[in-house]
Amino acid sequence: MQRDRAYYLYRYGTALLCWLPRSIAMSVMTVATYVAYVVSGRTRRMVSRNLRRVVGNQTSPRELKRIVRMSYASYGRYWVDLAHLTKLSEDDFGASIDEHDLVTFVEVMQHKAVIIALPHIGSWEIAGLWASKHGYTVNTVAEPASSEALTDWFRQQRDAIGIHVLELSGQTINQLLGALGREELVALVADRNIGGEGIEVRFFGETVRMPGGPALLALRSGCPLVPLAIYHDRSDQHFPVLLPPISLARTGRLRDDVVRITQDLAYAFEDLIRKAPEQWHVFQPIFQAREE
Questions:
Q1: Cα–Cα distances in Å, from 212 out to 29, 56, 69, 245, 287?
Q2: Which range, of 56-65, 94-103, 128-137, averages the lowest pLDDT?
Q3: Share of the chain above pLDDT 70, in %
Q4: Domain count, the chain
Q5: pLDDT number for residue 105
Q6: Which domain holds residue 209?
Q7: At residue 192, what are phi and psi to the nearest 5 degrees?
Q8: Phi, psi for residue 176 in degrees, rounded to 5
Q9: Helices 61-84 and 2-19 meet at what angle, rounded to 10?
Q10: DSSP SS3 for 138
Q11: Residue 132: C-alpha distances to residues 64, 89, 127, 192 (Å)
C-alpha cells in the first residue's frame, strides 16, 4: 500500500503540475517544498551534512541553512520543469535554455557517440530533450523505483521527451555499448552509487563510492566521457555547462584505469557542484563514512 501511495502521488501530482500554468505550479511547489523542509527533520539534517562538505566549515550555520532550504526549492522546480517539458512549444523551449555550450558540444563531437556524465543538479532532462530535438537518440539508465508501477511511470515520463531508459541489470553495459555503436548518446547521472560495489574516490575531502560504469563504458567504447550540468536562475532560463572530456589514456590495468577515470570524474563533479551547491539534489546519503 505504501508503494502504491508513492506511485499515485508522483503520477497525479505531476499531472496536476502539468495542468497548472507554470507560474502557479511553481508557487505550489514553493509551498510544498518549504513544508517538506520544515517537517522532514531527519532528511533535512542529512542534506545539511552533505552540503556542509561542499561549502566548507567557513560557511556560517545560518548561510548553510539558507542553502539547504534553497536545495529543497530547487528540487521542487525540477519537478515543475519535468512536468512542463512536453508542453513547451519550439519557441518557448528555445527561449528557456542557453544553447551556447550545447551548440559547441555538437560542433566538437560532430554527432558522434558521446557519454554524458551528470551530477544531480538542476533539470538534466532538458538537455536530453534538446538533444532529442536535434536528432540524437538519448539513452540513460535508472535505478528501480519503489514499485514496478512507479518504475514504469518514470520510464514513460522520459520516453515522452525522447529519452530511452534502460533498467539497471547485468546486460546494461552491453546495451549501452550497442547504443554507442549506433552513434547514439548515453547520459548517465553518476554522482552517487546505485548498484554494485562502486569505485572508491575522494569527493569533497571524503572517501565515497561512485559508479564505475561511465569509466568502463568509455574505455570499452572509446567514446568521449563529458561532464555536464544544467543550472537554472530565478527566471525560466537554464544554463548547460560542459567541461572538457575526461582523459581516457590507458596507463595500466583496466581496473586501475577505471579507478583513475572515476576519480577524475568525481573532481569534475566537484567543480560543477561548487558553482551552485544549492541546486545539488542530495536527498540520499552521499558521505557514508561519518554517518554510520
A1: 34, 27, 31, 16, 17
A2: 94-103
A3: 90
A4: 1
A5: 66
A6: 2-290
A7: -150, 150
A8: -70, -40
A9: 80
A10: strand
A11: 37, 14, 9, 25
